[in-house]
Amino acid sequence: MKNPMLEVVSLLLEKVLLISNFTLFSSGAAGEDKGRNSFYETSSFHRGDVLEVPRTHLTHYGIYLGDNRVAHMMPDILLALTDDVGRTQKVVSNKRLILGVIVKVASIRVDTVEDFAYGANILVNHLDESLQKKALLNEEVARRAEKLLGFTPYSLLWNNCEHFVTYCRYGTPISPQSDKFCETVKIIIRDQRSVLASAVLGLASIVCTGLISYTTLPAIFIPFFLWMAG
Questions:
Q1: Where do the structural domains in the chain lie, given as residue ranges?
Q2: pLDDT per residue over 72-85, tens digit each?
Q3: The whole model's pTM is what?
Q4: What angle do CA 131, 52, 127 make, to 5 degrees?
Q5: Which partner from 76, 109, 156, 166 sits 20 to 30 angstroms from 218, CA to CA?
Q6: What are φ and ψ of residue 118, in 5° steps?
Q7: What is the Cα–Cα distance from 94 to 52, expressed in whole angstroms?
Q8: Active site residue 161
Q9: For the segment 152-164, what is each residue's pLDDT rounded down to a tens digit?
Q10: What is the dotted CATH code of the domain comprising 24-172?
Q11: How far is 174 from 130, CA to CA, in rounded Å?
Q12: Rounded to whole angstroms, how far apart are CA atoms 108 and 118?
């Protein structure tokens, strides 16, 4: 049986991560392609390579399939609204992506290198060095990616584009980006100043709204759980 408190914490972590990084993913809406690089030299790419596109705070990942095609996981709200492949296959706009993250729907799709990178510089197989893991054969990596094409549940913390490529490349789905974020949250939670801050905010909410259950209970339990977790 799932722990409801853990589910609530997980949901809050995902929303915080979403809010803090909602402008970091590639987008395809009109007017969003200013300064976009329209050409990439792909002759050095090999089928099965991991392509990385650095963002401000995050990195987007994909698997190169050859012939200027990249398989990557992209959240998209349209997947929950329509079965029209003609609409869902268009480059995912920023609004579609954000709403897709919120409702946790995504697909592992194939786009051109240009649409995948969306003007950013591309790193190739950088994860091999940073994770220091032995990669599978490139053809096996590409085949794994191709087998996973299609609809998939999405989670910023537990099932994102990095989980997809690390599973294909190394056989194990991991996400150092998510792990780093969770470690940061742990540090914040363990900081006793968080307990004091939550207690002050809780007291302020009680003063403003009175002794109402939906303000009083959080004002008591949130500082308590932070104290116990510290």
A1: 24-172, 191-229
A2: 999 999 999 988 88
A3: 0.69
A4: 10
A5: 156
A6: 50, 50
A7: 19
A8: yes
A9: 999 888 899 999 9
A10: 3.90.1720.10
A11: 13
A12: 17
